[in-house]
From TrEMBL:
PANTHER family: PROTEIN FDHE (PTHR37689). CDD domains: FdhE (cd16341). This is Formate dehydrogenase formation protein FdhE. InterPro entries: FdhE-like_sf, Formate_DH_accessory. It comes from Pseudodesulfovibrio nedwellii.
Length: 304
């Protein structure tokens, strides 16, 4: 469990982005308020305590994520509390009109509905978002999906953080998250490791994938594509921009997907891995110019 609050990590990361690339300042201000609110809610839940599911080793061994098939209604109140805080911010960021905001506010005030959306997202039931009781002419399924992801994030992140060591001990070799089944939004190489034995420092550099929904980090082999599993060096490639080798694009020419990677051995303090992506858009642009698409689409990496 991290000793640094999520809110502090986001603040530090956003400030670093503004200083390093002033052109990204407006973007950091716009989406940064969402990351800050999510982190604040996560920190509050960690203080209050959050219910966690049991981890079934047999299900994990069979490839089923921890939350797959779990009834999310036990977190319904947490999710509606999250919606109350986040919806006004998301309405501003997404420039939703008053009618849409009012419709969403009523819809996401019911624990059964908001927990059902979270469960549908985890289980990949995209039809659920199309069949929701929110009028489709008012709120599109894509908008509802994105908002439900953001609303779910602080609750899921708190669950992950509370589970802690029990997750890190799992054996999981898949390119999707062992907790919620989502795809990664970024990968990272682990920082140098200080041991208790005379303060020896290890090399670090182990590869981890970072979940786009619940924020869990899980170990993954360095030479494989998380999207399709391709480990052929002839069809995989690494791109750098401006010779900044600790920030890179890992591309797979077999499936046409890419994932950003950051080497945490070169980062101090450790950045928030969600917010840091706002400062790496030049990598997304370069990847798109090379006819690649992201493993996980976001509002800022999907370019027309």
């Amino acid at each position: 469990m991290s000793n640094v609050s999520a809110s502090k990590a986001v603040e530090t990361t956003l400030e670093s982005i503004r200083k390093r690339t002033p052109a990204y300042g407006q973007l950091a201000d716009r989406f940064g308020q969402v990351f800050l609110a999510v982190a604040g809610l996560r920190d509050d839940l960690m203080k209050k305590g959050v219910s966690v599911p049991d981890i079934d080793p047999g299900r994990i061994a069979a490839g089923a994520p921890v939350l797959a098939g779990i009834d999310m209604t036990k977190w319904g109140v947490n999710l509606t509390d999250s919606a109350k805080v986040l919806l006004p911010i998301l309405s501003e960021v997404l420039e939703l009109d008053e009618k849409t905001q009012k419709s969403l506010t009523g819809h996401l005030a019911t624990p059964d509905i908001v927990s059902g959306l979270a469960q549908a997202r985890i289980e990949g039931d995209w039809k659920h978002f199309e069949n929701t009781s929110v009028c489709p002419e008012i709120v599109s399924s894509d908008t509802l999906l994105y908002i439900s992801e953001i609303v779910s994030a602080p609750v899921l992140c708190a669950i992950v953080e509370t589970l802690g060591e029990s997750l890190s001990s799992l054996t999981w070799e898949h390119g999707h998250c062992p907790v919620c089944g989502s795809s990664p939004s970024i990968s990272h190489l682990s920082p140098k490791e200080v041991t208790d034995l005379d303060q020896l420092v290890g090399g670090g550099g182990k590869k981890f994938l970072h979940c786009s929904l619940c924020g869990h980090d899980w170990r993954f082999q360095r030479n494989a594509c998380p999207s399709c599993g391709n480990d052929d060096n002839e069809t995989r490639e690494v791109f750098y921009v401006d010779n900044t080798k600790y920030e890179r694009i890992e591309a797979c020419h077999k499936c046409g997907k890419y994932l950003l990677n950051i080497d945490l051995r070169e980062c101090e303090p450790r950045p928030n891995l969600d917010a840091i992506q706002l400062g790496l858009i030049h990598l997304d642009i370069y990847a798109h110019e090379n006819k690649l698409s992201p493993i996980t689409s976001t509002l800022w990496n999907t370019l027309e």
